[in-house]
Each structure stands twice: as structure tokens, then as C-alpha cells.
Write a structure and sequence with these properties.
The chain has 345 residues and is α+β, with helices and mostly antiparallel strands. It is 17% helix and 29% strand.
Amino acid sequence: MSRKLADYFYDLPEELIAQTPIYPRDTSRLMVLNKNSGQIDHRIFTDIVQYLDQGDLLVVNDTKVIPARLHGVKAASGGKVEILLLRPVKQGVWESLVRPARRLKIGDKLQFGDGVLQSEIVAELPEGIRHIRFADNPDEDFESIIDRIGEMPLPPYIKEKLSDKDRYQTVYAQKRGSAAAPTAGLHFTPELLKAIEVQGVNIARLTLHVGIGTFRPVQVENIAKHQMHSEFYHVDPSTASLLNQTRIKGKRIIAVGTTSVRALESLPLENGRFLEASGFTDKFIYPGYKFQAVDGLITNFHLPKSSLLMLVSALAGRENILNAYHAAVQERYRFFSFGDAMLLI
């Protein structure tokens, strides 16, 4: 198993980076990769039902993306600023990624939405992160203001404007708090989820709020030294119970998205049983990792040298993954957030 960053690189033509979502959601392509043999099948996403068995458990992340990108100005100079809300630190204070970071210091006052939202930087952290305190607005609550003036925080490789905000949400999104979508779930429609349930497959929910780690590439040559940013997750008693029932029956736990994997693999175990949990996880999964929960994964195609590419390599083998990615390039699959899907089974 390789820990060299260079061993997680592949060539990707820029034109294969999907700029817009597919309509309908479930008509994207699906590459099915047998994680043991390396065999590849080319299908359509609705064919996913053919690979799920009665009694299997599909685990989805019900986090909801907030329109977390805000454009504003420095109150003193009028200079343009952009921030990305990452997570609330305490009442009225948000950890945020800011630009231009070198010009934004403690004490600087910022305005957004033509002054409807006033704020002040109260802490300066590395890597362009700041803690920003937002003043109360007597006329409108913070959440409503963000919904009105904020933009969906699309990744930097997507250049086209998103016409429909809901297209960067899963159909089961419920718990507000993410700075990016759990994109593997974007392929599901209510009708497809119903068809999966009719087949006798159980569906469980958990929550992991996607944070800054999504936007940070691995930069250390020895990947084992990479440090993930922590993200909040919650797994309730009903989901823990379904996980345990699935294990007892000898059926498979299939995660929808790498975010679901990280939450599931962060769960505490007691006498071999999964426990409910809430907290923060910075779990970094790379080849050599022994999975405790996940048997299969539905995911998208990930960036070269990314922690997500390392996670799927841990599950299916680095050579199998790189061979599959090479085949995806040859077959002109669409890559990244709005791209096509993979099933590792």
C-alpha cells in the first residue's frame, strides 16, 4: 500500500469536469467496480437497484447545504471581500474561510447585502480562516438573511452559475449546516429511493456537516501525515440499531458518499455493537485502513491527490481505483460534484 502522494495522481482532461447537473438526477452514468476482482461494468444510475439485495442497508447523509458564500465589503475602505461560512463556533460567531485573507485582520468590520448584515472579525486562524461575529438585525433573523443574500458554495472547478439552488441539495436534505453538498446523494430521486425500499433494502440517515476539508487538497508527500479538518456528525439510536441488525443478519452496509463513510467509521463500538454518537470527526481513511462498518460505497469521481481518492482506494484498492478512473476517462464519464457515479461493491 502506497503512502506517496504522487501515487494518487491521474490525468484528467478539463472538459470532463461536469459544469452542470444532469436532468433527471437519476439518469447519470454509473460505473460499477467489483472491489475484489477489479471488474468494471458501465450502467445508468437507475440500475443501482440491481446491485442491492433484500436486507442490505443504504446509509445516506441528510445534511443540508446553506447558501454559505457571501460577497461584501470592508466597512472602512469599501474593499471587496468574500467569505464562506463553515460552522458556528458559538452564538453569533461563525468560523469562515475569507478572501483576501492577507488583508482581513482582527477588528475589521465587514458588511454584506448592502449593509443588511454587519460583522466583525474576532479571531485570526491559519489557512485563511477567521472567526466572524455577526450583529443581530432587528428586522430579519440571520438564517433568513443568509438564504436571501448568500450563494450556494459551489467548488472552484465549477465555472457556470447554478440556475436552480435545489440542484445542489439531495432530495432528502434536512439538517442545515454544510458548506458543500454530499454529492453522491445528488443522483437519487424520490421515485428511485421508493423503488429501493420496495425491493426490501433498508435506508438509514445520519448527519455529517461537510466543512473545509472538502476544499483542501493533500499537500504532504507522505499522506499519513495529512491532517483532516474536523466535521460535526450525528448518528441517532434508530440508525445505530439498523446497523447492528444488518450486521447480525449478515447483510451489507452500503454508504452513500464519503461523508457517510467517515461518520460510520467514526462510530464507537461496544462488544461489537455500534453505538449512537454525536461529535466531531477528523478521521482520515487511506490504504491500509481496516473498515469496521462499510461494505460498499456509492460515490462520485474525485480529484487527483485528494483525501477522497485515498478513501476509495482504501476500500477498493489503489490499482483498481486508478484503473477504473483511467477507464472513466476513456469512456468520457463526467467528473466531480455534478458528474457521474461509481458503485464500489
